[in-house]
UniProtKB/TrEMBL annotation:
InterPro entries: FAD-dep_OxRdtase_2_FAD-bd, FAD/NAD-bd_sf, Fum_R/Succ_DH_flav-like_C_sf, Fum_Rdtase/Succ_DH_flav-like_C, SdhA/FrdA/AprA, Succ_DH/Fum_Rdt_flav_su, Succ_DH/fumarate_Rdtase_cat_sf. It comes from the Bacteria. SUPFAM superfamilies: FAD/NAD(P)-binding domain, Succinate dehydrogenase/fumarate reductase flavoprotein C-terminal domain, Succinate dehydrogenase/fumarate reductase flavoprotein, catalytic domain. This is Succinate dehydrogenase flavoprotein subunit. It comes from Dyadobacter endophyticus. Residues 40-466 form the FAD-dependent oxidoreductase 2 FAD-binding domain. Its cofactor is FAD. Keywords: Flavoprotein, Oxidoreductase. Residues 528-661 form the Fumarate reductase/succinate dehydrogenase flavoprotein-like C-terminal domain.
């Protein structure tokens, strides 16, 4: 694995505050008449894809949009709960563009590119204005102003929200813009289509091979540029908070066609998820980080304490985040909160039948809000029962759908007993390497939102995923794509009869036929479950060199087993979810190997990448800035063979320091 550095991030010159504004003022433009002759393919129609497709079509480009769901409304963006960040300073609590920029860099443990993060912070305010204009029903204060709440890793309130269904409301806003353009004929929508390869001609990305998931037919689609907006790869762990259909196939096919993969080992473990209940599960459920605004996290002070949470008195509770991190308390970043929960459970203080859970308790918030309501109504002799009733009503207004969801899944009423939570795989900070323009190492191939690596370093702050997806789609790609397409206006329509399309389609067909021919004894689901166990045990919340080396060998063996023993039912020429699953699992297996290689190569702990050999005496992550202050960008060279390229990270506007939330 030789290393080299031939990556050009194309970061504009000038001060950090002026880079984006100067860039927008000088980037090449495409005139309106020429835009009508340029075709853009958008793969994925979640927040990044829907906003990009709608905006590019509004500008006049011809757009084809693809999603494997039956409707763009089913994109996994819908599952985001707690909110979206923006530096509006509505609370007058000291927020600013610079503070959002700083918090994001620090939260990512100084492993993100400064220029991209500052741009994200700059456009964050525009996102809120755009979404309000689109009709997104953000929560509002009594007087009508938009409401804000806190999220982890910050000391200001900058998170805008719509109860506990922010992602759904934002997606409906982007979807309405998308559908408007579909109705006007500027976007051609392909539902139930999955991209199975990208097509490069003369070194430029010129289209995709897609499979109609209903008929099984393979289709060729040409375009002057391709945007991959296909989300993250958390399902490599099998159990995650991602929708079960979420996969890495589109990004992985691009990787194997020349797009470098950035920081694949940077995985986020979310601290507030409903604990695993048994072997039968195939998905985990997220409980929004917004609950950490008002919920207090604790475990009993006594080991193996089997009393119900409500029966444990206050002085026998260990509010361990408040104890260890007094400055941020329950709102430390996700990687820190997750490791702290794991440490308490590993030490024998876990709760519930599995002992792999901690409490998230709203009793104090209920009382506080209840007393506030009593004061508002000038009631000075309210009973304890009335205070609890009023407090529960306030909590219900803020978090009601989350509480209902918890009760439906666990059978426990969180208004009466503390929630039980445990960390679970959630977001992936790694993804396709992109430059400042969001272009991969393949000219004409772009990656937006969670599918790229660009904005979050080694750990994403809560409520920043929605911010990045919409920033990329609404406010970044409409400018940056012009820099490339301005020189493509003489290219003419892309012909799908080109030999590159014929060859790519034949290769996709051969892979499908191979999967169907094997007729082994093991289902794709079982291989996925086996991969997930290897990844969680040896490349999960904590990693070490020995475990990673073992994982690499185990995954390579799993890959050999898969291609000799997988059993795919049915045929290729109709709706066949088993075939779709097998295709995706094969890609996950290859990705899993690269994730372990990347984790083994990075001999430090940073953010969500925690190597047990590199930690402080207090168990905190210990970075090695001298040797590892770079983005790992991996080039695919063939089966089990990658070459590492490094993008050195330079910090000119932030003082590098060991992260401290104490």
């Amino acid at each position: 694995m030789a290393t080299s550095s031939r990556l050009d991030a194309k970061i504009p010159q000038g001060s950090i505050e002026s880079k984006w504004s100067k860039y927008r003022s000088s980037v090449p433009l495409v005139n309106p008449a020429n835009k009508r002759n340029l075709e853009i393919i958008v793969v994925g129609t979640g927040l990044a894809g829907a906003s990009a497709a709608a905006t590019l079509a509004e500008l006049g480009y011809k757009v084809k949009a693809f999603c494997f769901q039956d409707s763009p409304r089913r994109a996994h963006s819908i599952a985001a709960q707690g909110g979206i960040n923006a530096a509006k300073n509505y609370q007058n609590d000291g927020d600013s563009v610079y503070r959002l920029f700083y918090d994001t860099i620090k939260g990512g443990d100084y492993r993100a590119r400064e220029a991209n993060v500052h741009r994200l912070a700059e456009v964050s305010g525009n996102i809120i204005d755009q979404c309000v204009a689109a009709g997104v029903p953000f929560a509002r204060e009594y007087g009508g102003l938009l409401s804000n709440r806190s999220f982890g890793g910050t000391q200001v309130q900058r998170t805008f929200y719509a109860a506990g269904q922010t992602g759904q409301q934002l997606l409906l806003g982007a979807y309405s813009g998308l559908q408007r353009q579909v109705g006007m004929g500027t976007i051609k929508m392909y539902n139930r289509h999955e991209m199975l390869d990208v097509v490069n001609i003369d070194g430029k990305c010129r289209g995709i091979i897609a499979r109609n998931l209903i008929t099984g037919e393979l289709e060729r689609h040409g375009g002057h540029a391709v945007l991959l907006c296909t989300g993250g790869y958390g399902n490599v762990f099998y159990l995650s908070t991602n929708a079960m259909g979420s996969n890495v196939t589109a990004a992985w096919k691009a990787h194997k066609r020349g797009a470098f993969f950035g920081n694949p080992c940077f995985t986020q473990i979310h601290p507030t998820c409903i604990p695993v209940s048994g072997e039968h599960q195939s998905k985990l459920t997220l409980m929004s980080e917004s609950l950490r605004n008002d919920g207090r996290i604790w475990v009993p002070k006594k080991k193996d304490d089997n009393r119900p949470g409500n029966a444990i008195p206050e002085d026998e509770r260990d509010y361990y985040l408040e104890r260890r991190y007094p400055a941020f308390g329950n709102l430390v970043p996700r990687d820190i909160a997750s490791r702290a929960a794991k440490e308490r459970c590993d030490a024998g203080y876990g709760v519930g039948t599995s002992k792999l859970a901690v409490y998230l308790d709203f009793a104090a918030a209920v009382e506080r809000y209840g007393r506030g309501e009593a004061n508002k109504n000038n009631i000075h002799n309210a009973s304890d029962a009335d205070i609890v009733t009023w407090g529960k009503a306030v909590v219900k207004e803020k978090y009601g759908n989350l509480f209902d969801m918890y009760k439906q899944i666990t059978g426990e009423d969180p208004y009466e007993v503390p929630m039980r939570i445990y960390p679970a795989v959630h977001y992936t900070m790694g993804g396709l390497w992109v430059d400042y323009n969001l272009m991969t190492t393949v000219p004409g191939l772009y990656s937006l939102g969670e599918a790229n690596f660009s904005d979050h370093g080694a750990n994403r702050l809560g409520a920043s995923a929605l911010m990045q997806g919409l920033a990329d789609g609404y406010f970044v790609i409409p400018y940056t794509i012009g820099a490339y397409l301005a020189s493509e206006i003489r290219t003419g329509k892309i012909s799908t009869d080109h030999e590159a399309f014929v060859k790519a389609e034949a290769e996709v067909r051969e892979r499908i036929e191979t999967l169907l021919r094997i007729q082994g004894k093991t289902s794709p689901e079982l291989f996925h479950r086996r991969l997930g166990k290897i990844m969680w045990d040896k490349c999960g919340m904590a990693r070490n060199a020995q475990g990673l080396k073992e994982a690499i060998e185990e995954i390579r063996q799993l890959r050999r087993d898969f291609w000799s023993d997988v059993k795919v039912m049915g045929t290729a020429n109709y709706f066949n979810p088993e075939l779709d699953k097998a295709n995706r699992v094969a890609d996950f297996i290859e990705l899993g190997e690269l994730m372990c290689l990347d984790a083994l190569d990075r001999n430090e702990s940073c953010g969500g990448h925690f190597r047990e050999e590199y930690q402080t005496e207090e168990g905190e992550a210990m970075r090695d800035d001298e040797n590892y202050m770079y983005v790992s960008a991996w080039e695919h060279k063939g089966p089990e063979n990658w070459e590492l390229h490094k993008e050195e990270l330079v910090y000119e506007n932030i003082k590098i320091a060991q992260r401290s939330y104490k």
